[in-house]
Amino acid sequence: MAILVIQKSIILNCGMWVGTDMWESRVVAVKYLTHLERDKETRKVLLSLAQSIQERDIVTYEHSRRVAVYAQRLARYIGWSRREARDLALAALVHDLGKTWIGNDILNKSAALSTEERRKMERHPVTGARILIGYEVHPFYVEAVLYHHESWNGQGYPAKLKGEEIPLSARILTVADVYDVLTSQRPYKAPLTIDEARERLLAGSGTNFDPTVLQAFVHLIDVTPDFTLSQHVCGINLKNIQQPTFYNMFIAGS
């Protein structure tokens, strides 16, 4: 699996990348090891951060929880191991962590955002990645959070990566994220039906979304009754996120 390694010469400052290697990263092939005690500690950190999102903004938290469900199921569907899919679900739980630094006046605004408000909103992947780097979590989680708003055609943000330059973890999160936004009530819109959301997603194939990942997701929707009603990640009921058993099962690698 491709894992992002962030060069030491790149730093995060005020929610923006700065430095001589701006936007540059070195992608290397590494063996994904989640058996280590360090990874257990990482999962504890991520779950704690998810709780902080819940305390700060319940709407963002519930959205993240649903995205975790969709991302985990899609990852398993395309052949990821149970452990890899679980870790992607953990990344999904904190993918909007950076929004905790954005004011409610912007997050809950029903009208179109101004240019400055949009600029602040588009910083949230970098802000979230900066927080995760501060906790020294595995780069897998950092890259998923940092790049979940990149587009297949290179018109996303923050780095304008294109095609397979975008980590697969982020490509999966992008589809799951947008699907939940489309099917959820927001201050600025009513929810779409599953069929309407399906068509909207397909309209973005090859532009916003990786066509292969999107096709798998659409097929998953088609073969899964009541797809949006699922509340489980790897068999763990997300409604119990505050219960010790939820944390213990994630940490134990269930």
TrEMBL record:
Cited PROSITE patterns:
HD, HD_GYP
Domain HD per the UniProt entry, residue ranges: 60-182
The residue ranges crossing the membrane are none
Q: Name one Pfam family in it.
A: HD_5
All copies of the HD-GYP domain together span 38-233
Which SMART domains does the entry link to?
HDc (SM00471)
The record ties this protein, via PANTHER family, to:
CYCLIC DI-GMP PHOSPHODIESTERASE TM_0186-RELATED
Name assigned to this protein: Uncharacterized protein
